[in-house]
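Help wanted!
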Amino acid sequence: MPDRTLLLSTPELRPFLPMLYVAWADGRLDPNDEAAVRAHVASQPWLKPAARIALEAWLDGAHPPSPSELSRVRRVLTETAGTLAPAARSSLVALGSALAAGSRPSADTTRALNELEGVLGASEDAVALDLAPQTEHEIENPFEHASFDPRAMQKLLDGKNADVRANVRAFLDDPSRRAPYGLPKERHRAMVNGWLAELSARGFGALGYPKVTTDRADLGGFMAAFETLAMGDLSLLVKYGVQFGLFGGSIYFLGTERHHRLLADVASLKLPGCFAMSEVGHGSNVADLETTATYDHATGEIVIHTPREAARKDWIGGAAETAQLATVFAALEVGGEKHGIHAFLVPVRDPKGELLPGVRAGDAGHKMGLNGVDNGRLWFDHVRIPRDSMLNRFASITAEGTYESEISSPGKRFFAMLGTLVGGRVSVASGAVTASKVALAIAIRYATRRRQFGATHAPETLLLSYPTHQRRLLPALATAYAHSFALEALRDEYIATPSGSDTRALEAHAAGLKADTDVFTTFEGDNTVLLQLVARNLLGAYSARFTRGGVRALAEMLAERATVVVRQKNPLTTRLTDVAHLRDRNFQRAAFAYRASTLLGEAARRMKKRIDAGADPQAVLLDVQEHLVALAEADVEARVMNAFANAVGGADDALRPELSRLCDLHALSTLEARAAWFVEDGYFEPPKIRAIRKLVPVLFAEIAPSARALVDAFGIPDACLAAPIAFGDPATM
Amino acid sequence: MPDRTLLLSTPELRPFLPMLYVAWADGRLDPNDEAAVRAHVASQPWLKPAARIALEAWLDGAHPPSPSELSRVRRVLTETAGTLAPAARSSLVALGSALAAGSRPSADTTRALNELEGVLGASEDAVALDLAPQTEHEIENPFEHASFDPRAMQKLLDGKNADVRANVRAFLDDPSRRAPYGLPKERHRAMVNGWLAELSARGFGALGYPKVTTDRADLGGFMAAFETLAMGDLSLLVKYGVQFGLFGGSIYFLGTERHHRLLADVASLKLPGCFAMSEVGHGSNVADLETTATYDHATGEIVIHTPREAARKDWIGGAAETAQLATVFAALEVGGEKHGIHAFLVPVRDPKGELLPGVRAGDAGHKMGLNGVDNGRLWFDHVRIPRDSMLNRFASITAEGTYESEISSPGKRFFAMLGTLVGGRVSVASGAVTASKVALAIAIRYATRRRQFGATHAPETLLLSYPTHQRRLLPALATAYAHSFALEALRDEYIATPSGSDTRALEAHAAGLKADTDVFTTFEGDNTVLLQLVARNLLGAYSARFTRGGVRALAEMLAERATVVVRQKNPLTTRLTDVAHLRDRNFQRAAFAYRASTLLGEAARRMKKRIDAGADPQAVLLDVQEHLVALAEADVEARVMNAFANAVGGADDALRPELSRLCDLHALSTLEARAAWFVEDGYFEPPKIRAIRKLVPVLFAEIAPSARALVDAFGIPDACLAAPIAFGDPATM
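Answered by r_m:
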């Protein structure tokens, strides 16, 4: 017997492997095939003698190759097939060419392969099925059939400031700008500081201070940069947000011209800082911070002091290592009189990074995430700063040592101060949506390639074919789109709000969206606390009437609520179950609005009843707390729904159908989740909610084919998809 | 002016600080008080002259101490008060005594203090309120008023095997048996291996193999040890489970006498091993594992081989470093015939830890958690093992080279094999509940001490006073109790099941409870996959009829369902809203059972309809997947509800009232979460679900006073409450 293994070791014969394997695939060589192939091989004058002998050894019908020999050929084929693009293994000829050991096959070989294919009449399907049944490329993938161009969708999602986003993407699309998992925190921090310096050098730090560091009003660009940075290392996002947003922003928004002079150094990172608000004893309840700022008129200085352990500043980004200047929030006392919380610029380290006298710092240490951020603690021991270091946009201490403010009410002053920080909350919400987009992209890319379980003798089932997996991912995908549009609208509202105007509604909207995009649950305010802020704002109109009291006010309120109910709940609507109705945007919007307004009316009525009965207002708030949180959620959901509906209405014809499906899914899966409320209220009768339940999986099926394109449209650089499962290595699927 | 600071620096005067501070607390010394104190000081012959002068300097009504001087005294007092037990600062005398600079005050001092207190008439309340208003001990804590003894409750929860649990607790209650957060994985692994050796030396490894390593049937003890270990470092739990449960258990349950000889070395850790089931390509779908085990009759050996990258064993605990012997699951082929997945003992390292020829190992690297476990990968390159190394309880290869099994169906054989591993799933579920108990203990201890927000001039509100926080923690607490009892019942069922009997129902119950206790979502089977296993078991009875087909079977089924409905749904029950009815255990159990049986009947009907219409069975399963998962959840919930109800019924009088409240909360908050289903079905009318919604917060208020005692009853050693917030340092609250 000639040595059949020569077939595998002779480079010029490797292109023939697929053909020979198929010829023998059923365990016997058809005599006609044998004769035809022999004749064909004999007619190839370019084959060297040794190669010819090796080839003919595989054409001996009396001595078929053993299963093991065939198996070794098969292994070579599947290994090669696994590394190829689908086109490169779409036929025996193509696969054979690819096997030509790294070089292109000769013209002779290609011709011979084409002829042999004709001789054998081998079908491509046989190869695809037999050689690589487990590699997913061979099988029709039902989840890569988008009806639209992902780049056009990305353009829509990017909205304004596409240039800033493109620059940030280019910055992030570099594997060296990704910290390896498990990197020690010291090295991670150094890495992040380096990236931050690069961002600063590229001008991303200066964006946040229009008219000071830049002539342009570019808060939108600053927010777009922040939002896009959330695709990458979140430690960098936080450091960027702390230095240029919180620290620089506090100087920009709470300070006056004498402080604005510092902003060039903030933007260039020559002056690294931190935002020292939270204390270990008071995180959410900022009004009760305990750090003291006592004015000493004898020296014209303010004394910053940590009176007890609970007053230490804690979890402050930048405090552990890098910050040289801190914006410190502390309770101001002037001439023995307390004026509540104000912000002060307190130097904490010299330019060499040495702590200044009276300042003690600690390190928050290793964390479950964000180890590239040097979160830390600060204690102040009677640290003296000049009077001018008070950020004095809303209040100041005069040269005569008296406290002055244009806003007479301490409460109003406090909220005016906090109101300037609303941009941070909007940005954190945007960053949270971006982070959820990255997670969705990874999960959906995997779910559209990974197979597990299925019928015997068939490819296993793709994860995204399972309804439970569709439910896990597709409503979240629809909601990521919804939040994108809602946040764009909120950013526009924020940027368009004139400085100094009443921002309470805007703050509530920001708080609500931040709470609704729950990735960053505790950043920039605990979500449960934020939802109560939303509810209190909604009740604002009512509470004014509470204080005025009186039957007339209550009657007004109830009349208003009754109007809403009469206008929106009617027997026809509560019973309609046809698909066209359920997919009608007006029906969807009305349902969200009805829930929000009903909960508002009920909350107002409940509170009024209790207050009229003489209950303590604080006790009333506790009593209706769950109701208020539900109200706030409903209000945010209605706003998000409206923003999504508006975006669908304004989209191009090429994108509108897909966005409309997504909007339907977002609307109906949200209504499904609130089914109990709607049925109990009577707004939906049971058959209607059953119709919604039935429609949601239909929407899954409609959207699934575009799932991959819908996450591609997020435009996430490959380097940011940090999980290997995002890349579907065929060897491991 | 004499130097008043002597008061602080003179040890013998420190006991007088509280008294003097209170005397001056309102900024002026009452002339009568001044005279009385002066006279009193003059009459103390034991006071040294310098001390006397310093003391009198504080009694000069014409020269009151400055706010700063008073403030310094106050600081000393609050710092000391913060370190004392409430009793030690319950009066000025007690506080003064505690200030005697580390030594007990002299008899003279104590007498003087008592007299002074009489002179000043200073009230204790004044001190408590003024000196340490922020330390929580001073304020009545509404959440520490349990109606029962936590030790008695612990005894009930511990059930059988209290001795094993006590030993494990003693082992864990040692801070050195807790890895510091962020420890490099190499050091963490070494630490865990050391603890594992200690557990083994104490006999905890041998518990799992009754009649082999121990005479006693002590699977219950083994499971109790595992459950309790989950209070500590979860890496140790996993290593313990892998070595003694999965690895040793596979030898014990899948092997025969010739393999059981190894168990002594497994128990002593002389033979460390691993359980190599999962492959990167197949985690959930074990039947399609690709590692091959090919019998070579010429040598009497089995060849273990990894045919492609997707077949590498992955995430195998112990594979990266420690395992010397692996239980490898692979597809067996004997004489060219395939027999499906079997288990084989494959040596992978020599006793020195060097990899054996043909075996390659990789490290899964740094993980988000469990870094003390050396998870790894294994590849086999035609590794030969003797025929006897096949674990042959269910099938073997004879000396003649033929495959033999008493179970003729390959499917049945596969499930018989997997069935033996059900103990692992039960244990993982128990471990998950323990882990959730630790989390609950930390969160509830914190929530019963941490205050945030509140009315002005009053202590801030405790977190557990907020309804949103009650909802976050208390239903979870009730459910932890429910799961404890349900798992105890399941363990009893498991231990009582005779070897070799049909364990399908038990497996389904274990799968369901494992999926319901969702802390360990992917361990021992992904939860979504497990819930489908539950559903398929439930449909088992029906599916037998499907194959027989026929109108009679369907009629039978529907008749059965109709009986359930008629028996349980009646207009009275659907409308009853009184509290006694809602808290009636029979009503609660009936509601859970109704939902489970209704979903079962519906699922059976839907599947039957589709199969009768000629649909492919695989497509039908996909089609009803969400329904099946809902059915499985409902079934598990009904089982858990029954177990909890039984436990309440069997509890002592001293514990029953509290358990009954918890059971009400568990039942009603679960029904509330399923409100939409019940209202749509018509089993509840809207007023009834509204009554349930109203009752749940009432239960919060009933249970909250016992919250702390209910987590104390878990008996978690202090060293296991790893989060500092569990210990309520008054300095930071």
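OP: Thanks! One thing I noticed: Residues 467-496 of chain A form the longest helix (30 residues).
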